């Protein structure tokens, strides 16, 4: 489980499939109000406090983005900070109120620390995935975005190959479009192989 601060009142977690399996949680469980999901959320908040000093009390918005075959991105935004008199009225079970939004992503996004790693990855998946994808540059990294409208077995093989050269990204394509630089907006795998491999 990785956590990063997005702003003063917003943090983002990346939960891998292993993180979920270690806790006996399936993706579908995140939609349910069960004790092990509450325990996971409490563990996440403990980690956020220890690593970032991020404390929550009062209203909290939680956005969960399920990533195909990769895990989940969970964005936690705290609302107003309650006054000391509000805290006196709350017992331990009511320290925060959750407003949860769930969304399933239909994309796989990989990040590469070096352009050469992206070139090697594209060369390795071209015959498997074809000329797909979009590439963005953001924060000195390169991001390959693939839509998941393909056979699940092909997608799983593609993810396995891409994992050899990069890692699953925790940013969404919306962030990359807004703050990053578009390198290829279509057919990126084919273009990379044509010009660099």
Write up what this structure looks like.
The structure is a single chain. With 197 residues, the protein is α+β, with helices and mostly antiparallel strands. The chain has two domains: 2-104, no CATH class; 107-196, Alpha-Beta Plaits (2-Layer Sandwich), CATH 3.30.70. 37% of the residues lie in helices and 32% in strands. It is built from seven helices and ten strands. A hairpin with a 2-residue loop joins strand 1 and strand 2 (10-16). Helix 4 (115-129) runs antiparallel to helix 5 and helix 4 (115-129) crosses helix 7. The protein is globular, with a radius of gyration of 19 Å. The two termini are 34 Å apart.
What is the gist of this entry?
By secondary structure, this protein is an alpha+beta fold. 37% of the residues lie in helices and 32% in strands.
């Amino acid at each position: 489980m990785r956590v990063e601060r997005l702003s003063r009142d917003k943090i983002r977690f990346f939960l891998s499939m292993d993180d979920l399996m270690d806790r006996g949680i399936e993706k579908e469980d995140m939609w349910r109000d069960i004790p092990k999901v509450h325990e996971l959320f409490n563990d996440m908040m403990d980690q956020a406090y220890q690593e970032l000093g991020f404390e929550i009390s009062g209203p909290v918005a939680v956005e969960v983005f399920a990533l195909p075959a990769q895990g989940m991105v969970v964005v936690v935004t705290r609302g107003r900070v309650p006054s000391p008199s509000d805290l006196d009225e709350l017992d331990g079970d009511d320290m925060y109120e959750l407003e949860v939004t769930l969304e399933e992503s239909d994309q796989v996004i990989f990040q590469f620390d070096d352009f050469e790693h992206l070139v090697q990855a594209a060369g390795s998946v071209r015959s498997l995935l074809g000329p797909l994808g979009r590439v963005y540059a953001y924060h000195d990294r390169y991001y390959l975005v693939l839509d998941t409208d393909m056979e699940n077995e092909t997608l799983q093989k593609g993810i396995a190959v891409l994992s050899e050269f990069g890692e699953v990204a925790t940013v969404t394509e919306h962030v990359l479009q807004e703050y990053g630089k578009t390198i290829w907006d279509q057919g990126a795998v084919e273009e990379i192989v044509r010009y660099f491999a």
